[in-house]
Amino acid sequence: MTNDLDTRQHSDGDRARTRAYLREFVPAMVGYVVVLIAVGTFGDLDGDSPWRFLWALLPVLPVLAVVRAVARALRRSDEYAQLLQLRALAVGFAVAMTACVVLGLLESAGLVVPVAPWLAFGAGMLSWAVAAGVAHR
User: What is the pTM of this model?
Assistant: First the structure.
């Protein structure tokens, strides 16, 4: 700490921004889980119905709500927090793109990885979370 006024405690504004984020993010994630359960239960994704494609895309709706919550939280953040989050997003993006290239090259050599898109997604999200955690400590 460089000043007696510096503190590690969160301000009232920080707590209000966190509550606002959680009010948007948590219902969106709960909706995502509910929709995934509904798709798994009623979607008949392995069947022949053309409706299976609509069922498969249904989880995109709550994902869009999650994206909206994250974007709004970034807009409410101060410039320094936005910079840290941008750096973490850049790390996540770079890892996800690298995973896509690696998995694509392996597939072109004949290796079948049925969950390749989910591996790239997971690598990007995990690296974003780790980078954000490191940046904010």
Answer: 0.78
- Confidence at 3, pLDDT banded by 50, 70, 90: low
Angle at 67 between CA 64 and CA 73, to 5 degrees: 145
Counting Cα atoms < 13 Å in the Cβ hemisphere of 3 gives 2
Give buried/exposed letters for 97-118 (b at 16+ CB in 10 A, else e): eebbeebeeeeeeeeeeeebee
Q: How many whole angstroms separate alpha carbon 47 and alpha carbon 91?
A: 39
- Given a cut of 70, whether residue 124 has pLDDT beyond it is yes
Is 66 in contact with 24 (CB distance < 8 Å)? no
The SS3 of residue 35 is helix
Q: Are 130 and 95 in contact (CB under 8 A)?
A: no
- Amino acid, single-letter form, for residue 36: L
Please, which pLDDT band fits residue 30 given cuts at 50, 70 and 90? very high
Residue type, 9: Q
How many helices (H) and strands (E) the chain has is answered by 5, 0
